[in-house]
Write a structure and sequence with these properties.
alpha+beta, 6 strands, about 20% helix
Length: about 110
């Protein structure tokens, strides 16, 4: 099955509960503190690789059903960008199969 890379940018005050929810749901996340935006606020950026069939489950963990604003945008190289109710932003990329690095190169 194909995979998606989900990058979740969470305002600092929601970071711990979001990270805990992702882990409790059985997903993994690599995370680090980031700063950005016009006001240079502090956020936590999280990366999770998930199978296509688990994507909806992960997104429901990040933004529980009932949140009002799910704004979808499209951008270069990005499948979707979602802005959630608490200021969380989600970017989703498709992960394609890696080439076989042991095959001889063709001229």
């Amino acid at each position: 099955s194909t995979m998606k890379m989900v990058m979740t940018i969470v305002p600092k005050k929601f970071a711990e509960e979001t990270l805990n929810a992702i882990i409790e749901a059985g997903f993994t996340a690599t995370f680090y503190e980031t700063r950005g935006g016009m006001l240079r606020q502090s956020q936590t950026t999280m990366f999770s690789a998930v199978r296509d069939e688990d994507l909806v489950k992960l997104l429901r963990v990040i933004a529980p059903i009932g949140s009002d604003e799910n704004v979808l945008h499209r951008g270069f190289g990005i499948e979707k960008q979602m802005v959630f109710y608490n200021g969380t932003v989600v970017f989703i990329w498709s992960l394609e199969d890696l080439p076989n690095l042991f095959e001889p190169e063709t001229e």
